[in-house]
Amino acid sequence: MSLSRHLIALSAAVCLAAGLAAAPATAEPRPRTLGELARKHHKYFGSATDNPEFTDAAYLKLLGSEFGQTTPGNAMKWYATEPERGVFDFTAGDEVVAFAKAHHQKVRGHTLVWHSQLPAWLTERDWTAEELRAVLKNHIQTVVRHYKGQVIHWDVVNEAFNEDGTYRESLFYKTLGPGYIAEALRWAHEADRHAKLYLNDYNVDGIGPKSDAYYTLIKQLKADGVPVEGFGIQGHLALQYGFPADVRQNMQRFADLGVEVAVTELDIRMNLPATPSMLATQATWYADYVKACLAVRKCVGVTIWDYTDKYSWIPSVFPGEGAALPYDENLRPKPAYHAIREVLGG
Ligand code: 9MR
């Protein structure tokens, strides 16, 4: 090979090497995840999860990468954590917390006092008020102490009101009267002074009798010095029932009471089969809901009630309905996913 040919070959090799070295700088940057985009607004974007899903590697990969927060869908409920009186089992909850920790995710604790998913030992006998108070206090404090420092929030009382704003006649209400809510909050606070304590419910997206009941209750609890620090708006919507246009105003009035607000279980179901136009409407609704949270400084984040239609609770509870989440059953992002990204600035 002549000298000039040598030089040409050499310079080609240098250019190639330089080109390769420069490649990472010119390559498309990795798109920000929903969790990262939300963090820029000082909020989190999360997904609920459930232990049976932990065998699905593709599912876990997205759960761990895309979201900055998780909520165990069932693992911390009473039936799971205290299956026999005084016998506690934190296996399922610990599994979710360990996953979250490994993926730098915040965890919301869900839930301590709820009328549903209670163990049989609790529901299948009558309790005096004194007995039930002791059982409730022990349950709350044992669970909260176990997760101390590991959860940012507790849904201390879940779904305490009926649609008309009257108290739900749960075991706790019937036996202890409405004062069980303040007591539950005080007991939880004694066990973990740092977790933010929430009341959480569905159909409280807009202003109406049910959210008014929470407004009045939280105002009273604050006046009485009870440690209530957050209002959880679950956000289980359905296309056929319309979008709660005043969700931002509703969030703001709770913020003005001095509590934070979180969207805790967002999903938007529809009658199947889903059409492109229904999915487009769903995308707008997700975007508008997230926008409302972004507009309220004390709205701390949004959690969707799992992220894929593969594991949504909807089809089993509302036959003929579904397609409620931003990813389809094959873990492919739907229009809703892209709409949420856009609102978050992605
Ligand atoms: O996602 C939960 C599902 O796996 C359970 O079967 C169901 C039982 O009621 O509870 C679901 O989660 C609920 C949440 O704990 C409270 N708000 C309503 C949610 C949907 O039912």
Task: Describe the structure in your own words.
With 346 residues, this protein is an alpha/beta fold. It has a single domain, classed as Alpha-Beta Barrel (TIM Barrel), CATH 3.20.20. Helix content is 45%, strand content 16%. The chain contains 14 helices and ten strands. It has helices at residues 3-26, 34-39, 57-66, 78-81, 91-102, 120-123, 129-146, 171-176, 180-191, 209-223, 247-257, 276-295, 314-317, 335-343; strands at 44-49, 69-72, 106-113, 153-158, 196-201, 230-233, 236-238, 260-271, 299-304, 321-322. Strands 1-2-3-4-5-6-8-9 form an eight-stranded parallel barrel, surrounded by five helices. Strand 1 (44-49), helix 3 (57-66) and strand 2 (69-72) form a beta-alpha-beta unit. Helix 7 packs parallel to helix 9 (180-191) and helix 12 (276-295) packs parallel to helix 14 (335-343). The longest helix has 24 residues, at 3-26. Residues 50, 73-74, 116-117, 158, 202, 234, 265, 313 line the site of ligand 9MR.
